[in-house]
Amino acid sequence: MNHGTAQTPDTTTTGSSSGSGDPAPARRSDATRAAILEAARDRFATDGYERATIRSIARDARIDPSMVMRYFGNKEGLFAAVVSVDLRLPDVGALPREDVGRALVTHFLAMWEENEVLTALLRVGATSQAGAERVQGVFRDQLLPVARAVCPDAEQVPARAALCATQLLGLALTRYVLRLPPAVALRPEEVVAWLAPTVQRYLTAAHP
Q1: Are 63 and 6 in contact (CB under 8 A)?
Q2: What sign for the dihedral angle of Cα 150, 152, 155, 157?
Q3: How far is CA 88 from CA 55, 96, 139, 142, in A?
Q4: Taking a C-beta distance cutoff of 8 angstroms, is the pair 35, 61 a contact?
């Protein structure tokens, strides 16, 4: 796709809306957006969030960097549009109910240790609306079902899942984003020992 083609959504969509019925501008706009997303996925995967730049993504998509900004606002918005996170949560139905908290903390800790996409998503979620919405979606779609499977009261599922998120995201924020030395220094088994009982209580304890 050449530079001139990438500019067409700005100058031709008005004509299409005036009744010409020409679908070409919309197709070009969709193609430009798709090219940006494809380039961004490859660049984020190759360079990581911190090193990837709007300029390098635009170069890969063969468009002007201003077009990336037009479609997605900034790097944070683009990353939120691109990233897809599967938490691969354990099947809590196969676990004793009293072990769910430990299983969740252990699983999340292992994922944060090996997956820089999650750390980048947390950074973006803390600084942009698009990122925050993506983090919310990940936890809504993937953590809520876990809470629903073990909580004693269905009406409390959203609140209990949110409380679990305060522990799991708080751990990630302090250990992997802010890198507070005492949090970084904790051995994984210590993290699990401290957090698992709290997460378990949020999920299965009687309402206070």
Answers
A1: yes
A2: negative
A3: 33, 19, 12, 8
A4: yes
**3-class SS at 4?**
helix
Report the SS3 class of residue 117. Answer: helix
- pLDDT per residue, tens digit, the chain (208 aa), is 444 444 434 433 434 444 445 567 778 888 999 999 999 988 887 887 888 999 999 999 999 999 999 999 989 889 888 887 888 999 998 999 999 999 999 999 999 988 888 888 888 888 778 788 888 998 899 999 999 999 999 999 999 999 999 999 999 999 998 999 999 999 999 999 999 999 999 999 999 8
**H-helix segments, the chain:** 3-6, 8-15, 24-51, 54-61, 65-72, 75-82, 100-114, 116-127, 129-142, 144-150, 157-172, 181-185, 188-204
Q: What is the pTM of this model?
A: 0.71
Nearest to 193 by CA among 112, 107, 110, 106: 106
